[in-house]
Amino acid sequence: MKYYFAPLEGITGYIYRNAHASCFPGMDRYYSPFLVPHQNRDFDTREKNDILPEHNQGYTLIPQILTNRSEDFLRLSAALARYGYREINLNLGCPSGTVVTRGKGSGFLTNPDALDRFLSEVCSDFEHLHLKLSVKTRIGWESAEEWPRASGDAGSRLPGARRGSGRNGTAGKLPRTAAGRILCINLRRAKCTNSQPPLQGVV
What we know:
Blueprint: E1 2-5, H1 14-23, E2 29-31, H2 45-51, E3 61-62, E4 64-65, H3 70-81, E5 87-92, H4 97-100, H5 112-129, E6 132-137, H6 147-153, H7 176-182, E7 201-202
Parallel strand pairs: 1-2, 1-7, 2-3, 4-5, 5-6
């Protein structure tokens, strides 16, 4: 079993992560608070400080991006790759109202056709860039019953499930049928398949 440290915006920056890793070693990986693509730059000062390799020594950090535009995701991923990162995480789990109303985070789940196009474009480019994609997602917008369609439309490419639906946030439990299928599955070099690997870890 692997243990992954989920991010909390404004709390789990690199100073917190370094302190946590020092006091409680053994976490398999940490995820950064989400990065948002900017118009004329890759990172602001706070974001750059948070992902600099020299600020994240002694543990594995996976940067997370929040966007619904594949071109922005790919541009920011390329910038992160220049710092040596080989895996990027897509945020499909944030239930914040200001995020959801823009069709981002868990709000992206309300448009499965657009999500499938997004993932297809990202997977195609990631294969050429030799990057890995992982996804933090809810199992549906209204309820867990939406998961079969979401996983089918996206080719079962939605790992890192969070309990609850997009509308209800963290309320509710993650059904066992969904957990065994989607929790903590990495998209190894964008080789997206419909397989159902065993549970590998918890976030």
